[in-house]
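[Help] Beginner question about ligand-bound structures

Sorry if this is basic. My supervisor gave me a protein sequence and a SMILES string for zinc ion and asked me to "get the holo structure". I don't really know what that means in practice or what format the answer should be in. Inputs are pasted below exactly as I got them.
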Amino acid sequence: MNPIETVRFSCPWCGEPAETVVDCTTGDQEYVEDCWCCCRPVVIRVELDAGGELAVAVWAEGA
Ligand SMILES: [Zn+2]
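Answer (accepted):
No worries, everyone starts somewhere. Holo just means with the ligand present. The predicted complex, written as structure tokens, is below.
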């Protein structure tokens, strides 16, 4: 697995495809990024499972 992974998701607000870069060396993390398209806040939660696979959940902040 690469230490830096690119994760693709659809914006929960506008549905546009977006992507974020995850630093896998920091373990589980949760952060907010503004959508590049609609500029609304998107919460991105990244978890690493025991096999080192990324599990990503995305939802609209405040929704
Ligand atoms: Zn959006």
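A couple of things worth pointing out: The pocket of zinc ion is lined by residues 11, 13-14, 16, 35, 37-38, 40 (CB under 6 Å). Strands lie at 4-10, 17-23, 29-34, 41-48, 54-60. Feel free to follow up in the thread.
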